[in-house]
Specification:
It contains 16 helices and nine strands. The protein is of the alpha/beta class. It folds into two domains: about 5-125, Glutathione S-transferase Yfyf (Class Pi), Chain A, domain 2 (Up-down Bundle), CATH 1.20.1050.140; about 135-300, Rossmann fold (3-Layer(aba) Sandwich), CATH 3.40.50. The strands form two sheets. Strands 5, 6, 7, 8 and 9 form a five-stranded mixed beta sheet that branches. Strands 2-1-3-4 form a four-stranded parallel beta sheet.
Amino acid sequence: MVKEKAFSFFLGCIMPNRYPAIEKATKFVMGKLGYEILDMERASCCPAPGVFRSFNKVDWMVTGARNLCIAEKNDADILTVCNGCFGTLQEINKHLKENDEHREIVNEKLKLLGDYEFKGTIDVRHVAEVLGYEVGPWGLEDVITRKITARAAVHYGCHFLKPTRIREIESSEGPTIVEELIEVLGVESVRFKEQLTCCGAGGGVKAYDGKASDTIFEEKMKNINDVKPDFILDICPFCHLEYETAQDQLNKNKGCNYDYPVIHLSQLVAYCMGMDREFVGLQYQLMGKEYNFGVEEVKKEEEAA
């Protein structure tokens, strides 16, 4: 039986290698909310949907299924903070549960890798979906200790909501799950033109055609800059990486002057729950940048009494 208040934490590739603060913040948030976070020992790359699947769909499923098997042994659903990992693992999980032929093929290959057998006993969750729906804004009100007066440009990314028939989160054309969640933290989401388009790095675009990727990102940043947010809020380390590094590239190659802090949803929530800015990673991300938004300490009723 799957543990209801526990998650198998799938780290993916980029977060532990580039953004350990997102990992630390996510564990802090889920712990504060009463969830047990279980390690996935010997887990591998998800693997990335926009690259591996294009070359060999069967081996893509086998690799993903092996990760799912690790979580099945934990008797706990997978939690991921990455859109690409979410897309791969959820799609493979759903497909193998429904397709007997492919499940048999995958399980035969899994035997070659060790004690693995896909049984289809768990689900795959994204931290934004868990916080937005399972916990909800109402669930955060009792645990936050700070509110931030700020305006954020929210970036959903490609794989979190699409394809809608598989994700089953909400409409991919007008999502509000993140906006409603951060409102209770004091943060206003500022809409901008073509908000739901790709950051430019997804689906292997950046590796295949750097110029096309740069064009997409340049247009994205122009639209964000038009509304002048205090920071960019994402829900995916890969999008996070693009927004951090490509701003500098635009400044160097196009003479732009972008300097927007980039914050992952887990970091924002962790900070509002009381995690020190240094440990949540904001000390590094805001270094050298204007920190204009206000912070309000939230007093609980028992403290006031």
